[in-house]
From TrEMBL:
Places the protein is found: Membrane
Entry's family note: Belongs to the bacterial sugar transferase family.
Protein's name according to its UniProt entry: Undecaprenyl-phosphate galactose phosphotransferase, WbaP/exopolysaccharide biosynthesis polyprenyl glycosylphosphotransferase
PANTHER family: COLANIC BIOSYNTHESIS UDP-GLUCOSE LIPID CARRIER TRANSFERASE, SLL5057 PROTEIN
Transmembrane parts of this sequence: 21-43, 63-84, 96-118, 124-144, 298-317
Species name: Nocardioides scoriae
Domain of life (superkingdom): Bacteria
GO MF annotation terms: phosphotransferase activity, for other substituted phosphate groups
Residue ranges occupied by any Bacterial sugar transferase domain in the UniProt entry: 293-481
Membrane topology field: Multi-pass membrane protein
Cellular component GO terms held in the UniProt record: membrane
Keyword annotations: Membrane, Transferase, Transmembrane, Transmembrane helix
Length: 487
């Protein structure tokens, strides 16, 4: 694997100008949305009869004068609380927090001001303003984030990055930044603690010198961000000098500790005596075995079995109509929790002798290990193509969930020969029940490599939360409708 560099594809000056437009675009968008919510609340309240909300409401000068004041105060609160800082755009929940918190502050300030100044401000108008405004603002930021991420994947709105640290740590950070292209980080080079005769790291990142000259290299390379990975400096004094040297340069300094694939919920920073200590919560694999998750699985799978019974009948009829001599369901041994084998149920989508010809396909396509998927598998039947495209073949696994063999969300249920290839790290994915869906599915399904599928499963096990399960279920529905990665 090599890091994709684009240092000559785009002018650093043009890149920075594009990045500077993000806060301005956010200001204009927020202004329009806040103004829309205030006007909509005013109109909606004027249309509601007093029999529904028993209070007087009239288009007096006092109410009209309050409209632009609320809009300006709202935008000012977002600005003061950091809602337009360039680094918050495009990733993380912080962007949404810095819209929601100022909105609540504005609501509180408006209420206090109306009380202290004895303004005749309608309670209905006040309530509707923020009931409309907060969701609309969050939706606006979400839409803007999607646009920014699409632009970054297309190579625009990139931030030029220089990484300092030992070669191993540099490659670790560079691999994450290269994989998550939506973050918009373009790695232009790296510096190591000691000079190297090599021109690039093992991952292909250009080596530009020693980390002692990091400040000058960052200025010469016109970078936007400097990442400090493990081993960048031998003392805290050197790191302070770097901050001093870049004090008047428009360059961010980011400390990247050797902690990857850890969710934000498990990480907290606690400054003690001027030393920022990073606290890492324990992995959450055991939490995924608790009764709350199992109860959720039982209730939801039972409801889905009842609701989707017509789909089950239709799918079974399609399979039976294609081959009346073959069974409708395909039972395949899979490894469940702690490697215990169980029969994974699916609607049959392949010819009856699919397993017998599998070895020939392995040899023909040079398969050695991991997932085996073909774009046009000759074993798939005519109705099987449709069932696979929309993942309808996996619906019988709801029975596996109800029986306790599987969960609605979890790692992909592996074959026993795949488990035989696991090392100690990979075996961690067997600590929880396998799932009908999971991060592996909503992140690409069959388009993922073997190593990427394993990485996502391990991430899920270590960072499990009920909220994450709900998000994955929602994203699964979207992935199934678009047939992304299905084969």
């Amino acid at each position: 694997m090599t890091v994709q560099l684009s240092v000559t594809a785009r002018s650093p000056r043009l890149t920075r100008q594009g990045l500077r437009y993000l806060p301005l675009a956010a200001v204009v968008t927020d202004l329009l949305l806040v103004a829309l919510s205030v006007v909509a609340a005013y109109v909606a309240r004027s249309l509601v009869p007093t029999s529904v909300i028993p209070e007087s409401f009239s288009t007096n000068d006092q109410v009209l004068a309050a409209l632009p004041i609320i809009v300006l105060a709202w935008l000012a609160a977002i600005y003061v609380l950091g809602g337009y800082r360039p680094e918050i755009f495009g990733a993380g929940v912080e962007e949404y927090k810095r819209v929601i918190t100022p909105s609540l502050v504005t609501a509180a300030g408006t209420g206090i001001a109306a009380y202290m100044l004895m303004l005749d401000l309608s309670r209905g108008f006040f309530l509707l303003t923020f009931l409309f405004g907060i969701p609309i603002l969050v939706l606006g930021r979400w839409t803007m984030r999607r646009a920014v991420q699409r632009a970054r994947r297309a190579g625009r709105l990139q931030q030029r990055v220089l990484i300092a640290g030992t070669e191993g740590h540099v490659d670790e950070i560079a691999s994450v930044l290269g994989r998550e292209t939506w973050l918009g980080y373009d790695v232009v080079g790296a510096l190591t603690p000691q000079a190297s005769v090599k021109r690039t790291t093992g991952l292909g990142v250009p080596l530009l010198g020693e980390s002692g000259s990091l400040a000058q290299a960052a200025i010469d390379q016109h970078v936007d961000v400097v990442f400090l990975a493990g081993g960048a400096f031998s003392s805290a004094a050197e790191m302070r000098r770097l901050a001093w040297d870049l004090e008047h340069a428009d360059i961010q300094v980011v400390i990247a500790p050797s902690v990857t694939d850890v969710s934000a919920e498990r990480v907290s920073v606690r400054p003690v005596g001027g030393l920022p200590l990073i606290h890492l919560d324990r992995p959450r694999g055991q939490d995924a075995l608790r009764r709350a998750k199992r109860s959720f699985d039982v209730v939801v799978s039972a409801l889905l079995l009842l609701a989707l019974s017509p789909v089950f009948a239709w799918a079974a009829w399609q399979v039976r109509r294609d081959d009346r001599t073959a069974p409708v369901l395909f039972r395949q041994p899979r490894a469940g929790r702690e490697g215990v084998s169980f029969s994974c149920l699916k609607f049959r989508t392949m010819v009856v002798d699919a397993e017998e010809v599998l070895a020939d396909l392995h040899a023909e396509h040079g398969y050695s290990r991991g997932l085996f998927k073909l774009d046009h598998d000759p074993r798939v039947t005519r109705p099987g193509r449709f069932l696979r495209r929309y993942s309808l073949d996996e619906l019988p696994q709801l029975v596996n969930v109800l029986r306790g063999d599987m969960s609605l969300v979890g790692p992909r249920p592996p074959l026993q020969h795949e488990v035989a290839q696991y090392d100690d790290d990979m075996a961690r994915r067997l600590h929880v029940r396998p799932g009908m869906t999971g991060l592996w599915q909503v992140s690409g399904r069959s388009d993922l490599s073997w190593s990427e599928a394993i990485r996502l499963d391990l991430y899920y096990v270590d960072n499990w939360s009920m909220v994450q399960d709900l998000v994955i279920l929602f994203r699964t529905f979207r992935a199934v409708l678009t047939s992304r990665g299905a084969r």
